[in-house]
Amino acid sequence: MKYVIVLADGCADRPVESLGGKTPLEAAYTPNMDSFADKGSLYFVQTVPTGMKPGSDVANLSVMGYDPHLYYTGRSPLEAASIGVELLPNQTAFRANTVTLSDEADYADKTMVDYSSGEITTAESTQLLRAVEAELGGGGIHFYPGVSYRHLFVWDDAPESFRLTPPHDISDKKVGPYLPDNEVILDLMKKSEKILREHPVNKARIAAGKNPATSLWIWGEGKKPALSSFEELYGVKGAVVSAVDLIKGIGILAGMRSIDVEGATGTLSTNFDGKAKAAADALLKEGCDLVYIHLEAPDECGHQGDPEGKKRSLELIDEKIIGYVKARLDESGEDYKFMVLPDHPTPVSIKTHSGESIPCVMYRKGEDNKTGFVYSEACAEKHGQVRTVGHELMREFLS
Asked: Are 213 and 196 in contact (CB under 8 A)?
């Protein structure tokens, strides 16, 4: 048996006026997902435990079968594992976004113009992080480049608690009310702005009409977690295919293979074809039993308030990911199961994550329940099997 999980990050949404009152998932042409819902089993799942923030860290741990109450220690330690930074017990990791802030002189008066600095390339942002490390690193403080706008800050012997805000939660808002309550972190952010504003990378981006990366924004703190082996827990050899350090890091810490795909960006312009081929090859040529294919594009479009882009991302996932991998598995003669779901909703109306239950569909080769259901939020809420403990879904899928 081969198992395929297609995680369309943030794809669940709320009705959008410009889409005729439909959600992007309802408006998108997704024949493969709808066929799974008609022939297979539909669920309405709470992936984010009550009382926990609806982040991709918590939600993806849950979908991967790890109880966040037991295993979650913060977002950035998961990303550190992907980058190759081995955290020591006395070290705290943080996410450091390169962001675009407005030009007011007082840092607190600035507005969060773009939490991703125009989806800056990894090559550009690596230069910026190296400049920041050269100026601000040392004395138990270090900065490590990641992918695109997502980077890592590590602080030795840091305090135990912070009030830090994800930058994608405050798009188009003045940053003053959301600044860190820690003077060291706030000082690093302010100093990073002075370094980045005059950097040649940013001057070139401005000349090209792109958003510059004018500051670091630090958030998502945590200590190194200890995940149990996925293979020992569930009895299958797994792999993850993702452009995002968070997902790659969870896979690495769980003892799964993390497969790099050239041109994988985590945006609408990602290499869908390459991801699909890598996933199918892992299952059919490289001895994996399960592959977790993570697509960030719906989430990015949600954060940008782009319903048409989100709709298009779902159509591409349906065609290029699900359609291709299913065809390869059908040709192979292997028995297989698919599970398709988001980790959490990212409604375009609020441009950030929310904690509602999400639609999930499972389908096994040859199954034909003829339910008449389609894959959508409303159909799952009305007809789906309710699951209130998200991390138990994995064992049900593999049963």
From this structure: yes
Pairing of strands 112-114, 91-101: antiparallel
| pLDDT tens, residue by residue, 376-389 | 999 999 999 999 99
Interatomic CA distance for residues 36 and 38, integer angstroms:
5
Sign of the alpha-carbon dihedral angle for 275, 279, 281, 282? positive
Query: DSSP state, 16?
Result: B
**What is residue 39's three-state secondary structure?**
helix
CB 129 within 8 A of CB 188: no
Q: Is 314 helix (H, G, I), strand (E, B) or coil?
A: helix
At 92, give phi and psi (nearest 5°): -115, 135
Query: What is the per-residue pLDDT for 266?
Result: 86
Q: Which two tokens mark 362?
A: 């499972």
Q: How far apart are CA 6 and CA 290, in angstroms?
A: 11
- pLDDT attached to residue 74: 86
Structural domains of the chain, with CATH: 2-72+226-398 (3.40.720.10), 88-222 (no CATH)
HSE-up of 44 (CA within 13 Å, CB side)?
Answer: 15
Q: Are 92 and 223 in contact (CB under 8 A)?
A: yes
DSSP 107: G
CA dist 340 and 25 (Å) reads 12
CA dist 269 and 257 (Å) reads 24
Contact 371, 34 (CB under 8 A): no
- The span from the CA of 62 to the CA of 75, in Å, is 13
Residue 375 is given by DSSP the state S
pTM of structure: 0.86
Q: How many CB atoms lie within 10 A of CB 354?
A: 17
Distance CA 64, CA 60 (A): 6
Integer Cα distance of 62 and 53 in angstroms: 13
Taking alpha carbons only, the member of 117, 119, 114, 145 closest to residue 130 is: 145
Burial class, 365, CB count within 10 angstroms (exposed 0-12 / middle 13-18 / buried 19+): middle
Average pLDDT for 20-29:
98
| DSSP label at residue 188 | H
Q: CA nearest 24: which of 15, 32, 33?
A: 15
Neighbours of 383 (CB within 10 A): 15
Distance CA 392, CA 185 (A): 37
